[in-house]
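Task: sequence design from structure.
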């Protein structure tokens, strides 16, 4: 789930470097291609759990500032995760957004792969 929220926020921010890195990392740790392929349409997909949906909704809302995270989205996150997991999710989303704002404007490019 950690990589999925990083990929989704990076997609929203148009950060090719981070999309590439986190897709490859997700696949390396066992994420399925189908779940990665369907990530941009996760609301329509049947491949994500309720907890993953809550995390993805939070990642999108936190990335779309200044609109922010609604009470409904926040309540879904706090219902789906333990407090320490919520803290990790908030940190992961904040960090990927920061990295996107470094990598995209500096024209960072993913490595060439054979």
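Answer:
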């Amino acid at each position: 789930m950690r990589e999925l929220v990083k990929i989704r926020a990076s997609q929203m921010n148009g950060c090719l470097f981070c999309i590439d890195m986190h897709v490859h990392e997700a696949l390396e740790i066992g994420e399925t291609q189908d779940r990665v392929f369907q990530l941009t349409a996760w609301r329509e997909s049947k491949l994500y759990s309720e907890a993953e949906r809550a995390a993805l909704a939070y990642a999108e809302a936190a990335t779309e500032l200044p609109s922010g995270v609604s009470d409904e989205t926040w309540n879904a996150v706090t219902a789906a995760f333990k407090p320490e997991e919520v803290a990790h999710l908030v940190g992961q989303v904040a960090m990927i957004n920061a990295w996107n704002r470094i990598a995209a404007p500096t024209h960072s490019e993913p490595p060439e792969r054979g």
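The helical segments are 2-13, 16-28, 33-37, 50-63, 71-80, 83-103.
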